[in-house]
Design brief:
The protein is an alpha/beta fold and about 240 residues long. The chain has 9 helices and 12 strands. The radius of gyration is 18 Å and the shape is globular. The mean pLDDT is about 85.
């Protein structure tokens, strides 16, 4: 279970302090899928980075299965059970795919296991194991590789920041299938930041964040109709064509 209490994050811009995440509180149950949406610049990605420890909160508390991880850095939060997929996956020239998967798993992976992970995200393992994580890989390939790194070890909470960004329709369909598989198992919490209607419709609960605050949170059946009406406070979805 994840419990977030009064989380606040501020930045200093040209000598002026500005709050990006403002006193946010919510919880997630084990096995739950929570989709976070809302207008661009509302604080969604910053919240995710604060939860992962990429950014340090100015105030508030984060509990994971009852343990206070508020003071943990990114490494210790990863060891505690949080996985994170960036909106724009980083590239590492000289780093091969099999090496990256081993680092994500925390141990050397047998070739058969690495191949299984790549196959799970729709990549032909033999073609990718020794490839470098560099500019020769497309956005869709990078997205699928990053999903594979998150799946390389069990997590209590997996955070995906706009997994649909910059990928082709086929790659997007593969990601949806993978999220559905994870969700069916109900052994990990899934937090997805997204504007994509197809992802939002998968949620158990939806959270709408705007101006650093939670504007709406509740079961999909309650929140989705408001999003679909294009109310001013909820114009945040990319509709499917």
């Amino acid at each position: 279970m994840l419990e977030v209490k009064n989380l606040t994050f501020k930045v200093n811009e040209n000598g002026v302090e500005r709050s990006i995440v403002k006193d946010i509180s919510f919880s997630m149950e084990n096995g739950e899928m929570l989709v976070i949406t809302g207008p661009n610049g509302g604080g969604k990605s910053t919240l995710a980075k604060v939860l992962m420890g990429i950014e340090k909160a100015d105030a508030g508390q984060i509990l994971l299965d009852g343990a206070d991880i508020s003071d943990f850095d990114i490494d210790h939060r990863a060891k505690a059970g949080i996985g994170f997929a960036f909106q724009q996956p980083p590239r590492f020239k000289g780093m091969t795919v099999d090496r990256l998967l081993g680092l994500a798993a925390g141990e050397h992976l047998p070739e058969q296991e690495a191949c299984r992970m790549l196959s799970a995200v729709g990549l032909c393992a033999k073609e990718y194991l020794k490839r470098e994580i560099d500019g020769t890989l497309s956005g869709g390939e990078m997205k699928r590789l990053e999903i594979a790194t998150v799946l390389a070890k069990p997590h209590k909470l997996c955070i995906f920041d706009e997994p649909e960004a910059g990928i082709d329709l086929w790659s997007f369909s593969m990601l949806i299938q993978q999220f559905e598989r994870i969700h069916r198992k109900k052994d990990q919490m899934l937090m997805l930041i997204s504007h994509q209607e197809r992802i939002i419709r998968m949620a158990d609960r939806i959270m709408v964040i705007d101006d650093g605050k939670i504007k709406h949170i509740g079961p999909r059946e309650e929140i989705l109709p408001a999003l679909l009406t294009d109310e001013p406070s909820c114009t945040c979805m990319d509709r499917e064509q």
